[in-house]
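re: that chain from earlier
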Amino acid sequence: MTTVIPKIEQLSSRVWRILGCNPGPYTLQGTNVYLVGTGQKRILIDTGDADKPEYIQNLKDTIKTQQTGIQQILITHYHHDHVGGIADVCNGLDLGSTVSVSKLPRNPPQEESIESSSKSYNYLQDGEVLKTDGATLRAVYTPGHTDDHMVLVLEEEQAVFTGDCILGEGTAVFEDLFTYMKSLEKLVSLKPQKLYPGHGPVIDDAVPKVQMYIDHRNMRERQIMEVLSGNTDKWMTPMDMVKIIYVDVPEHLHIAAAGNVDHHLTKLEKENKIVRRDDGGTVQWQKSSL
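^ sequence. v structure.
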């Protein structure tokens, strides 16, 4: 059952969450936008989506009741449900040119622009520290969900703003499983006490939650290797494997499952555990003989 998330909620002495009012299958209850700090100027983490007037009003109300303003905006990654609201936030809060919008660069580098805004991104470096009254944030590069993804460690709480690396409910999607798994291991090494996710409720059992993500992916990987090991005389497509591994999953979800299997296969290929061939436009896989 999906947790009900208030549209505005104080989560700690230095963290407020404003819901982006953009619910959906990938955004869950909506994007979590965080106002961080205790002073007259605070840091905003992510901006939600465009054209969500209720969210902008809720953000304005929160800032007014807290008698504060925005020092700078930090963006966890380039997806529209995190950057889409930049222009509306800047216009709605009448933010001047001195308020920067910062994120990590794309990898490989590419030109980026902020839609409907004259602002440009200020690019951060992995490990860079950002301070405001009552809060110290450290940017940590965690690619996989996207090539520019970062999480932000809140030093005062030993907490992490996870963006879409970890969700409050369910599991996250990713562009590259190989780098995503390394990012999950990096998150475990941070030993957080609490996770503030980009979507869904706050996670208090932080390390076990990240380990659950790792265990889930490792389980799928073992299943794929077992299938390939049991069919060494065959070349198999992702859908061939889905029909063996996902026997309890309804058939209409098999295409999505094949996409997940394909991510695992690409990771295993990078690790030299399997090989691929192109059979008339159909990519097939087999366990490596090395």
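The chain has a mean pLDDT of 96.
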